[in-house]
Amino acid sequence: MKVLPALFENNRQWASRISQASPTFFSRLAEQQRPEYLWIGCADSRVPANEITGLLPGELFVHRNVANVVLHTDLNCLSVLQFAV
């Protein structure tokens, strides 16, 4: 697959940009996550939660599903809520 090498290269470039801007970013990110916010949002790929809120990885705990629905029968969503609280 020719797509995967392009994705890996994009990731390397992204990591390089982040490291240049903030040399300790990844070491801080490796610590236990303690985001201030829980975002339950749409799974639509055009709506990246971190980007539209202006937050970096690790600053927003994200759960994405179709239509932003929270149901009492959705064990995945309930697990997210339990972890976030």
Characterize the structure shown.
The chain is of the alpha+beta class and 85 residues long. The chain has 2 domains: 31 residues, no CATH class; 53 residues, no CATH class. It has a two-stranded parallel ribbon with strand order 1-2. The longest helix is centred in the N-terminal third of the chain and has 19 residues. The chain is globular.
List keywords for this structure.
2 domains; 46% helix; 14% strand; alpha+beta; 85 residues; globular; two-stranded parallel sheet; single chain
Q: Low-confidence parts lasting 5 or more residues at pLDDT below 50?
A: none
Main beta sheet, described? 2 strands, parallel
What is the helical fraction, as a range of percent?
40-55%
Task: Find the count of extended strands (DSSP E, 2+ residues).
Answer: 2
What amount of the residues lies in strands? 5-15%
**End-to-end separation:** 40 Å
> What is the average of the pLDDT values?
91
Side-by-side strand order of the widest sheet: 1-2
Secondary structure: elements and pairs:
Layout: H1 3-21, H2 25-29, E1 37-42, H3 49-53, E2 60-65, H4 75-84
Parallel strand pairs: 1-2
Please sum up the structure shown.
By secondary structure, this protein is of the alpha+beta class. Helix content is 46%, strand content 14%.
